[in-house]
Amino acid sequence: MKKIKLEDVASYANVSPTTVSRVINNRGSISDKTRKKVTQAMEDLGYYPNEIARSLYGKKTNSIGILFPDLMNPFFGEMTTKLEHLLSEKDYKVLICNTQNNLEKETNYLKMLLANQVDGIIVGSHNKPSEIYQQAHLPIVSIDRYVSNKVPIVRSDNYNGARTATNYLLEKGCEKIALISGSSLIEIQQGDQRVQGYLDIMKENNLCPISYHVEFDKPIEYQKKKIDEFLKKYQEVDGIFATGDSIASLLFHAAKKMKRDIEIVGYDGTEFITNYFNNFATIKQPIDRMAEKSIQLLLEFIDGDYSHSGKEFLFDTELIEP
Predict the structure, then answer these.
(1) Cys-Cys crosslink for 97: which of 53, 109, 166, 251, Cβ 3.0 to 4.6 Å?
(2) Phi, psi of 308 (to 5 degrees)
């Protein structure tokens, strides 16, 4: 997790730090052979020169990058707000990057953050781990998603939260309980814990699971269409666990429009949802505590404490009834 310095590039390329600086700033007389050697060394080591203030290289910039998949999602919107507020109190500037669930955009943002020499990154990527994370010699903390075996993960207890949601529907007398998830079939097979919690409760109660996939990152009109198709296809469903509050809200309004009496449980429990759309139960993630833990881990990394590398930190969830 050591941060690569200009001196490391110089040593690797067997040239002086001054030569590396000249190559980076395109100053002085440098042969093509030397320039290629230095450029290759930078690439091999994963060194990204500071595009804003190269003279500050090697010093702390007191800036943190936040890289999330969708700031329109209430969970990531609220988490970003909490992180920015807490980091501001500690005199850190924050660079917020919204990847919109696009792997190329995520990679470009990550390169930008590395080039601008942020002291660390908090990431909530929903894409497959990018190779660039493996090469980044920088403190990184992940929220809810695996990034690499060196990056700690802060997440709510998705498995037990899903079990609580499904049990709640059973206690409400539901007999045909469906799951609506944003996970693809591949992600489900790889162990989506919210999906697994639902499946295990259904199996323990000898009930047949009904799973339906809606891509949460698609336009809202697409989501509404998929929900309408689901409700028309499964007329017998009387209970639904939706793995996100946004989709749960759309479900509630679609069911009401069709005059269907369906119990719904969502997941996230953000202040926005619980204050303004408290028409259905939800599993609340402790966003404040998760944000505090993420920052604690990141600042420890920045100070050179790597004892938590690759560890997972689980937080209990809470059922919020309407």
Answers:
(1) 109
(2) -100, 10
Q: What share of the chain is helix, strand, coil (3-state, %, to 5)?
A: 45, 15, 35
| Phi then psi dihedrals of residue 147, to 5 deg | -115, -55
Crossing angle of helices 17-25 and 6-13, in 10° steps, is 110
Checking if the pLDDT of 45 tops 90, the result is: no
Q: What is the rounded CA–CA span in Å between residue 38 and residue 102?
A: 31
Q: Which two tokens stand for residue 229?
A: 């198709």
Two tokens, residue 309: 């590398």
Q: Can you give the pTM of this predicted structure?
A: 0.79
Residue length of the chain: 322
SS3 category, 286: coil
CB atoms within 10 A of CB 263: 21
Of 245, 236, 171, 230, nearest in space to 201 by CA: 171
37-43 CB contacts, 8 Å cutoff, 24+ apart: 37/13, 38/9, 38/13, 40/13, 41/9, 41/12, 41/13, 42/9
Is the pLDDT at 68 greater than 70? The verdict is yes
Predicted confidence (pLDDT) at residue 185 exceeds the cutoff of 60: no
Q: Is 201 helix (H, G, I), strand (E, B) or coil?
A: helix
Domains defined along the chain, listed by start: 6-47 (1.10.260.40), 63-151+287-320 (3.40.50.2300), 158-284 (3.40.50.2300)
Alpha-helical (H) ranges within the chain are 6-13, 17-25, 32-45, 74-89, 103-115, 131-135, 158-171, 185-189, 193-204, 220-233, 245-257, 271-276, 287-302
Are residues 253 and 280 in contact, defined by beta-carbon separation less than 8 angstroms?
A: no
Closest CA to 51 of 116, 111, 97: 116
For residue 202, the SS3 value is: helix
Mean of the per-residue pLDDT values for the chain? 87
Per-residue confidence (pLDDT) for residue 4, from 0 to 100: 80
The 10s digit of each residue's pLDDT in 249-281 is 999 999 999 999 999 999 999 998 888 878 899
